[in-house]
Amino acid sequence: MRAARVMRHTRKLRMELLFEPLQYHFFRHGLVVALLVGSLCGWLGVYIVLRQMSYIGHGLAHAVFGGAVTSSLLNLNVYIGAGIWGIMTVLLIDKVAARREINADAAIGIITTASFAAGVALMSRTRRFMRDFEATLFGNVLGVATHDLVIIGLVSVLAGVALIFLYKPLLFSTFDAEVAQVSGVPTRRIQLLFSCILALAILASMQVLGVTLVAAAVVIPAATARLLTSNFAAMLALSTLLGGATAFCGMYLSYYLDIASGASIVLLSALCFTAVMGYRHWRN
Amino acid sequence: MPAAICELQRVAMHYDQQPLWQDLDLRIAPGQFVALVGPTGGGKSTLLKNILGLLPCTAGEVRLAERVTIGYVPQREGISWHFPVSVEQVVCMGRYRQTSWWPWASKEDRQHTAVLLQRLGLAAYAKRHINELSGGQQQRVFLARALIGKPQLLLLDEPTAGVDMKTQHEILHLLRELNGDGMTILLTTHDLNTIASHVPWVICFNRGIVAQGPPTAVLTPAILRQTYDADMTVMTQGETTFIANRSLVHRHAHARSPRHAPYPKAADGTPL
What we know:
By secondary structure, chain A is mostly helical. Chain A is built from 13 helices and no strands. By secondary structure, chain B is α/β, with parallel strands linked by helices. Among the domains of chain B are: about 70 residues, no CATH class; about 45 residues, no CATH class. Chain B is globular, with a radius of gyration of 21 Å.
């Protein structure tokens, strides 16, 4: 009798914990955005981890920040301004890295850091933007409005559809770029398209994850999934699920612990990775 | 003279502004089975990549026959063995030109893959991860990926490297069979002994063509010295040719204890 009462009470408490934050408009929006971008970053992360190009996520996030600051100062829509900026950065990296003397990692390092520096310089000139951009740097769910939700939803759906139809050429060029090229895959165009999708995904993730933390949200779910499977399709599914799940749970963690959403999502993701690593180590 | 399936005319290649070769002419006729031999750093793989269009040559022209389909088997060391793909997925990649945009393999893709895996004795390993196979099986998987696109011209970069002698023979017999079916084959290799008995046309290459012809005409001490800048001994027994690096043999012979039997000598009296 008493045990049943305790169980009922626990269930009620659990339900309250789950539903209480949902009464807030900002949390509902933040949760949907986190779920969308977490899953998308997990999906994209598989290709980035397998190409050993984790640096590009980090770099593009910083570059997009420069675009966000500039478009804000020019009173342009942040999504359009930073989106164009991000795509221009990708094209510039491609152009510079096409030179044999400069590797892609050096090109990414130069262009994205310069872009970030431009953002920081502009931000320090106009101090009134400081608080707004702190949220962009570290993630804050408070600012997710309905129009953000629509844009982020649209970007996520478009990116998802593109990734479905690019599955075969992306898999082939990620595994073996040279043979893929010989076999008819337009490898350079596919890489460019992928980088543009990544730039847009990072842009969509900016508000919830923050530009300084988005790279981790891209890499950690994929690295965790790789530890769990040796099947490519399963790795894609697991990484997408892990990305979505850690973003969803991280949002609750952020609410109850009163910490930045980006930090809670990334910390939870890192905890999952550590647990899987520990499990693998224990099993071996 | 039949039209060439691949022709290089006055091709030049530079690396870091240093010329690798200049005015290189090469003609490969349909149905030829050619081995490109030469020292490491001699430019064999670079030449293959010139032909494939992966590395553009700095001057001259690489001409391929109209609508020729090409298969390529890269070097083992360039493959990411821990990439999460199964044998059947790797082979299926080769059907890129024939396959649909949908992410899954079509019934036709699966059928073609199964037939080829069966032919190459890999049917039992279709679902395995590529890293779970032996060196010879792995090489056959990548050969299957190249063959699934039904190439008329097959280029292989060091297909016999890193596998045991039995597997080397198996691979070359398989290539011979494919060549018998009309496929033109160009491969690079370090293994002079295996190609001497399996490949009908050899090109000695060291930053340019040193000589080309049937193995018996090309694999001579003089040409090999010019190609490798090392003394080689060539012995023929029946239809089999043996090639040994004389400087290495000398070194080993000197290191032997006097208690050992005298070291065998070649027909001309020089130590093997």
